[in-house]
Design a protein that fits this description.
Elements lengths: L1 H6 L7 E6 L9 H14 L7 E4 L2 E7 L6 H4 L6 E7 L9 E5 H7 L10 H9 L5 E7 L12 H22 L21 E2 L1 H4 L12
Parallel strand pairs: 1-3, 1-4, 4-6, 5-7
Antiparallel strand pairs: 2-3, 5-6
Helix pairs in contact: 2-6, 4-5
Length: 212
């Protein structure tokens, strides 16, 4: 995927990955789960804190309050900053899309139930001049209170975690210790394909992937 080759290449410097959402609402917690799995794969064991620093990568499970992390991270000089969240793009469950900062600002002024719109948070991050911001959006299937991730979205999250962990291993030069490629994702399954950004922009999402 072009997204992975551009964002997670060995020449990349410091990257901040922030998963967000509410795990109590089924697939709305997919961003948090992705952050957790990525932390676990990079560390080699379950994380003990919401923030994990692994070489040049910082991985955070921000839950429903990503704005609370901005002050602490402001002076750390990240080159790239990636939000990871559930977004209702009106497409097949488990589909994913990458959106650059201008697309977040113009098409999705309010992506979720976070206290501050994600577009505003993105502007705050980019206002420091150095950091490039993007969004990795995942189409939810189930947004019912008190449920876990749906099987379809769980498969997508696991596959993304494998791909991103492999990119991390390459960026750190960890002797080729790269996780095996994902086995549960099929390239002929439309529910697991990366959407082109224009496809994701065809429909505006509801708040946090849940009906307003």
């Amino acid at each position: 995927m072009e997204f992975f080759s551009q964002w997670f290449n060995p020449q990349c410097h410091r990257i901040c990955l922030i998963g967000m959402g509410n795990p109590d609402w089924g697939d709305d917690g997919c961003g948090c789960q992705l952050a957790h799995l990525l932390q676990e794969r990079c560390l080699g064991h379950p994380p003990e804190t919401s923030r994990v620093d692994t070489g040049l990568w910082t991985i955070i499970d921000a839950g429903t309050t990503p704005e609370n992390w901005l002050a602490a991270l402001a002076g750390e000089g990240f080159d790239r900053w990636l939000w990871m969240d559930a977004v209702d793009m009106k497409c097949q469950p488990g589909s994913t899309a990458f959106l650059a900062a201008p697309q977040i600002a113009s098409q999705f002024p309010q992506l979720s139930t976070h206290k501050i719109a994600l577009s505003t948070l993105t502007q705050l991050v980019e206002s420091r001049g150095k950091t490039t911001v993007g969004l990795l959006a995942i189409q939810p299937a189930n947004l019912t209170w008190g449920t876990n991730l749906s099987p379809t979205v769980s498969t997508t999250v696991e596959a993304l975690a494998d791909l991103m962990a492999a990119a991390w291993a390459l960026s750190t030069g960890s002797g080729g210790q790269i996780p095996p490629p994902p086995r549960r994702i099929r390239t002929d399954d439309p529910s697991n394909k990366m959407l082109h950004p224009e496809a994701a922009l065809a429909a505006k999402p509801t708040a946090g992937g849940r009906p307003c």
